[in-house]
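During the second half of the funding period, the structural biology subgroup turned its attention to how the target accommodates small molecules. The most pressing case was S-adenosylmethionine, which had performed well in the primary screen but for which no bound structure existed. We therefore specified the complex as follows and requested a full 3D prediction, including the ligand pose.
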Amino acid sequence: MNAEQQVSTAWGRQRIKRDQIDKYLANGRDFINEELIHSQLAAAPGVPSPQQVRDILAKSLAIQDLTPDEVAVLINVNDPGLLEEMRAAALAIKLKVYDNRIVTFAPFYLGNYCVNRCAYCGFNNDNCTAQRKVLSQEEIKREVAVLAGDIGHKRLIVVYGEHPRNDVDYIVESMQTIYSVRIPTRHGQGSIRRVNVNAPPFSIEDLKKINDAGIGTYQVFQETYHKETYARMHPQGTIKSDYQWRLYCMHRAMEAGIDDVGIGVLFGLYDWRFELMSLIYHTQELEKRMGVGAHTISFPRLVPALNSMIGPDWKYLVNDADFRKIMLIIRLAAPYTGMIITAREKSEIRNEALLMGVTQMDASSRIAIGGYSDVVTAQAQDKQQFILGDTRSLDELIRDFAHRGFITSFCTAGYRCGRTGKCIMDLLRSGAEGKFCKLNAILTFQEWLDDFGSAETRSIGLPLIEREIEQVKARNPKVLELFMEYHSRIKNGERDLFL
Ligand code: SAM
Ligand code: SF4
């Protein structure tokens, strides 16, 4: 072990607070009961009958959560006609709960130093060829200038490895720096209005600091819920090898006051059927114990990384057909939960995902540290965690979605008006959230098209807005006057107006 590794190991030892795991256990056990999940999978009919499937879909369409037993039934559907019915139901739920809106964001990698040695990740400590870097506050400002000033992003997910150099104080400072940047645009000022954080698990005390810095969603993926596989992927002695420290980080986050939490699985490490059931158990546990389920579910699929220990013949890699089924079942089982698909996936799959109930996608993504202000356009395998599948710019993505009748929302009003956590879930359940969100989506879409849209994208986006306004006139007459006033003020150059 070199001197740097010794310091990191000493730092790592005092991170895990056992009492902040034990307090959430029930009779000394966590909520992932492997035997139960395996038995539920085994008990599900191998070929579910159309009636069984349709009964479950009727429940989903009534916007009710599915039970793990019902999820196990859907997992076994392979009949093309029934899969088509699942697809139609998923889209219907998406339109009912979220309407034709899609939210975009950019991933922003700030530091790739990491003390862990995850078998699948290009940032793992054993990877000597990775170029390590933590951005300085000045470098962060340069990156945000491109993200908010040139591309027009309003939301980021900031990503950190686990290391003393990018610990909680750095995370807090970097978030403050990001929020402080203001860049002149065609008609106003570009700025980041919501910073979501993908970072390692923290203690309640550290999570309070991150909450005070204005976090949007706190996102941590369990990677795999299967304990034996988890132990194989995360070598003993590393901080990340503690399964339960990770499993309960969202309980701690909610206790620290963070309302919106994002869970996920890295699909491809273990059997996707088991992982999908566990995701459902996780969000339902949060709802039961902490009062509100996951705000978002992510389902990243393993992609090759430099010096990764998992090769192309690993037995659990997920094919496209199963991946589509995973997306459908998440939408059907957790109708209110946001679903995020990232640019790890190719554009064809992401376009399909739009019609399967996904609610958030990244665009113009660069995942090399300092990648946005770097003039080199090619992906750099020694600087990034993995290679991206969809390199469309935000302008292209918005145009493609507008062609399909979807409007891109840059709304961050909910978070800034306190419509988060349980409040937003209750609004979604009552159908009231759609009213605010649709109107704010139109306003922010107009703002983005005026500030950043290319002529080609504006030629498709502006007629779409006109059609949406006609719908508002028919459906929301009560707020029409105020909405129309805000809309014309935005067209005249005012910014950041929301209802
Ligand atoms: N270090 C933090 C952690 O591990 O929680 C957060 C950053 S990590 C870079 C973010 C996520 O990237 C991980 O949770 C993992 O799911 C995902 N990831 C890692 N390697 C990957 C790969 N080869 N393909 C796809 N996703 C990967
Ligand atoms: Fe580090 Fe996260 Fe990569 Fe694991 S997944 S090596 S913890 S950056």
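Two results from this model are relevant to the next phase. The radius of gyration is 22 Å. The longest helix spans residues 455-475.
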